[in-house]
C-alpha cells in the first residue's frame, strides 16, 4: 500500500499552466480594451497618445494622459477588487459548504456598508477619510453579520437554499436600515451614497493599497491552508479524522473572507455576484480544488469585475452602477444555480 | 497474550457532564480482530466509536491507544493510528482522487495509484471514478469511496459507524471481504452494525451496547435471537 511513490503528473501540470496562462491572457486583453472606453470619449489615437506620454514619464502632461491615468487606476482597482471578491466568495462557499454563498447575497457587504454609513453619520467629522476607519468600520460591520449568519446556519443545518434565503433577508434588512439612515441626513451622506453606489468610479491609490494589503495577507494564508481546507470541504468528521482542527479552519476561512469583503467595500462600495461567479467559472477550467484553482478564481473575479465595469461605463449616457450590471447577469445565474442545487439534493 | 491496541477501562462518556450516555465501559481490542458493537438505536454505539477516535473525551476512566493515553496524543499521531468512518454522506463538490490523496496523507495521488498498489480487490465499479465529483455520485457509491478512503489512511485501528449504510447486497459481501483483508494484515476493526448478515458472519467478538453500558456477548444464534427480540440484557445470559 505504501509502495507507490507520488509521481508528478506532467499532464495535469501542462493543463494547469495552459489554463492559468490562458485566463491571465484574457484578463490582459480585457483590461487593454477597457483603457479605450469611458465617458470622456477619447478616440483610440488619443488614448494611445496619452499612454505614450505616461510611459515617457509625463503622466500629467496633457488632459489625455490624465484621463488615461485615471482609467488605469480604475482598471487596476477593478482587477484587485475582483480578485479579492473572487477569493472571498470561494472562502465563504467553502466555509458554509454552500455554492450559493456570496458576501453581497448573505449581507456581509451590506453590514460593512451600514457600518461605514453609521461612522459617517455619528463619527467625528472627517473620520471617514481616515484609512484606519475606512478599514475598521466595514470589517466590524461584516464580522457582526458573519456572527448572525453563523447562528442562522446552526439553526438551519444543511439546507443550502434556506440559508441563502435567510442571508438575502438579512441583506434586505441592512439595506433598509442604510436607506433610512441616508434619508435622514442627505447632506452628510451624499458622499457615502456615491461611494456605495458607483463602484469603481471613486478609484484611488489608497483604495488600491487597502485591497492589495488584504490580498497580500490573505493569499499566502489560504495557500498554506489548502490541505485542511479541502478536508473540511468533505465534512467535519472526515476532516477531524485526518487531524484537522475543524473549528479553527472554519473560523479562519470565514474571517479571511470577511476581511477581504470589507476591504472591497472600503475601496469600491458594495459589489455583488463577483464572489458567486468566480469559483464557478474557475471550476469550468479545472476540476481539482488546489492552488491553481484558487489563482484561477481570483483571475476570474478580476475579469468579471473589469468586464462589468466596462459595461457599466459604456452602455448608457451616464454611468450605471457596477453592482447593477453584475446583478443583471448574476440574478438569472443564481436562479439557474438554485434549480440545479435542488436537483442535486 | 498479545497486548491490546485499543483499551477502554471504566470509561464514562457522553455530551453533558453528569449525564453520561455510557458508564463503566471496559473494552479491549487486540490487533487483527474484528469487533462488532450491536444494540438498539440511541444506546450509544456512535458515542462509543467517537470516544475511541478521540472526538469525545471521557468524563471518567481512560482510553489508551498502543499503551498511550489517547487524550495526550497529537491530532496528527491520532490520524495516523486510528481512522473513523463517519455515518454522514459528504455531498461535497470535490474529486474522488482528492479524497484518496487527503486520506492517504499524501502517499497516494489518485484512485489510479490506489489500484496500482497493494489494495483490497473490492468495489470495482467505483475504481474508475477518480475524476468524478463526490456529490455527483449515489449515496452507496460515495459510501464505497469513503470506505476505501478509510483503508488508504492505513491506521492500526479502523472504526466504522454502520459501514453497511446504502450498500447493495453484493457490496455488503465485498465490505466483509475488505474487513477480513484488513484484519489479516493485522489491523483491528471496530464497527457498529444493525446488519444480521454482518453480525452472523463477520466479527470475532460481539459487544452489546444497552442499559447505559457495554457487555461482551458470545457470537451465537441465541445472542442474535435475543437481539432480534430487543432484549437489552442479552449479554447476561
Automatic annotation (TrEMBL), chain A:
CDD domains: TM_ABC_iron-siderophores_like. InterPro entries: ABC_BtuC-like, ABC_transptr_permease_BtuC. The chain crosses the membrane at residues 20-42, 72-92, 104-126, 133-154, 160-182, 203-226, 251-281, 293-314, 320-339. GO terms for molecular function: transmembrane transporter activity. The keyword Nucleus does not apply. One of its GO terms (cellular component) is plasma membrane. It is found in: Cell membrane. It is a multi-pass membrane protein. It holds the Pfam family FecCD. Gene3D superfamilies: ABC transporter involved in vitamin B12 uptake, BtuC. Its main location: membrane. Keywords: Cell membrane, Membrane, Transmembrane, Transmembrane helix, Transport. The keyword Cell membrane applies. Belongs to the binding-protein-dependent transport system permease family. FecCD subfamily. This is Iron ABC transporter permease. It comes from Candidatus Cryosericum terrychapinii. The lineage of its organism: Bacteria, Pseudomonadati, Caldisericota/Cryosericota group, Candidatus Cryosericota, Candidatus Cryosericia.
Amino acid at each position: 500500500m505504501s509502495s507507490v511513490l507520488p509521481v508528478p503528473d506532467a499532464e495535469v501540470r501542462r493543463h494547469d499552466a495552459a489554463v492559468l496562462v490562458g485566463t491571465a491572457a484574457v484578463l490582459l486583453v480585457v483590461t487593454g480594451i477597457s483603457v479605450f472606453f469611458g465617458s470622456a470619449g477619447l478616440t483610440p489615437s488619443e488614448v494611445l497618445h496619452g499612454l505614450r506620454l505616461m510611459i515617457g514619464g509625463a503622466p500629467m502632461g496633457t488632459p489625455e494622459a490624465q484621463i488615461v491615468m485615471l482609467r488605469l487606476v480604475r482598471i487596476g482597482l477593478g482587477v484587485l477588487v475582483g480578485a479579492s471578491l473572487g477569493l472571498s466568495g470561494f472562502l465563504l462557499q467553502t466555509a458554509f459548504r454552500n455554492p450559493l454563498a456570496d458576501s453581497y447575497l448573505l449581507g456581509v457587504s451590506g453590514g460593512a456598508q451600514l457600518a461605514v454609513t453609521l461612522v459617517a453619520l455619528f463619527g467625528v467629522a472627517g473620520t471617514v477619510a481616515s484609512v484606519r476607519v475606512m478599514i475598521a468600520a466595514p470589517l466590524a460591520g461584516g464580522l457582526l453579520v458573519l456572527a448572525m449568519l453563523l447562528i442562522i446556519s446552526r439553526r438551519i443545518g444543511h439546507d443550502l437554499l434556506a440559508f441563502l434565503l435567510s442571508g438575502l433577508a438579512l441583506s434586505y434588512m441592512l439595506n433598509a436600515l442604510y436607506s433610512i439612515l441616508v434619508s435622514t441626513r442627505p447632506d452628510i451622506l451624499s458622499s457615502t451614497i456615491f461611494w456605495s453606489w458607483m463602484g469603481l468610479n471613486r478609484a484611488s491609490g489608497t483604495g488600491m493599497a487597502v485591497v492589495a494589503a488584504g490580498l497580500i495577507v490573505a493569499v499566502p494564508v489560504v495557500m498554506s491552508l489548502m490541505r485542511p481546507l479541502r478536508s473540511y470541504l468533505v465534512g467535519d468528521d472526515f476532516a477531524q479524522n485526518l487531524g484537522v482542527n475543524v473549528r479553527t479552519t472554519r473560523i479562519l476561512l470565514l474571517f479571511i473572507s470577511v476581511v477581504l469583503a470589507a476591504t472591497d467595500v472600503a475601496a469600491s462600495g458594495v459589489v455583488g455576484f463577483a464572489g458567486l461567479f468566480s469559483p464557478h467559472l474557475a471550476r469550468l477550467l479545472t476540476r481539482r480544488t488546489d492552488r491553481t484553482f484558487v489563482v484561477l478564481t481570483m483571475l476570474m473575479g478580476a475579469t468579471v469585475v473589469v468586464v462589468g465595469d466596462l459595461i457599466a461605463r459604456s452602455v448608457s449616457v451616464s454611468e450605471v452602477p457596477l453592482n447593477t450590471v453584475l446583478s443583471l447577469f448574476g440574478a438569472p445565474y443564481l436562479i439557474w444555480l438554485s434549480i440545479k442545487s435542488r436537483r442535486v439534493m | 497474550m498479545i497486548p491490546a491496541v485499543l483499551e477502554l477501562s471504566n470509561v464514562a462518556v457522553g455530551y453533558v457532564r453528569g449525564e453520561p450516555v455510557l458508564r463503566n465501559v471496559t473494552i479491549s481490542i487486540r490487533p487483527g480482530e474484528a469487533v462488532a458493537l450491536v444494540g438498539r438505536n440511541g444506546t450509544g454505539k456512535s458515542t462509543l466509536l467517537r470516544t475511541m477516535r478521540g472526538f469525545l473525551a471521557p468524563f471518567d476512566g481512560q482510553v489508551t491507544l498502543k499503551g498511550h493515553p489517547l487524550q495526550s496524543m497529537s491530532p496528527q499521531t491520532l490520524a495516523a493510528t486510528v481512522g473513523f468512518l463517519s455515518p454522514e454522506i459528504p455531498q461535497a463538490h470535490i474529486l474522488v482522487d482528492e479524497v484518496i490523496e487527503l486520506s492517504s496523507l499524501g502517499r497516494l495521488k489518485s484512485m489510479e495509484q490506489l489500484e496500482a498498489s497493494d489494495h483490497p480487490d473490492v468495489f470495482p465499479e467505483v475504481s474508475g471514478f477518480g475524476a468524478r465529483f463526490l456529490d455527483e455520485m449515489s449515496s452507496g457509491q460515495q459510501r464505497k469511496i469513503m470506505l476505501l478512503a478509510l483503508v488508504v489512511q492505513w491506521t492500526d485501528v479502523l472504526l466504522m459507524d454502520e459501514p453497511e449504510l446504502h450498500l447493495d447486497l453484493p457490496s455488503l459481501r465485498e465490505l466483509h471481504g475488505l474487513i477480513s483483508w484488513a484484519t489479516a494484515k493485522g489491523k483491528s476493526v471496530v464497527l457498529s452494525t444493525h446488519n444480521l448478515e454482518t453480525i452472523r458472519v463477520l466479527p470475532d467478538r460481539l459487544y452489546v451496547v444497552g442499559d447505559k453500558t457495554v457487555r461482551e456477548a458470545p457470537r451465537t444464534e441465541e445472542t442474535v435471537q435475543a437481539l432480534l427480540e430487543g432484549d437489552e440484557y442479552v449479554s447476561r445470559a
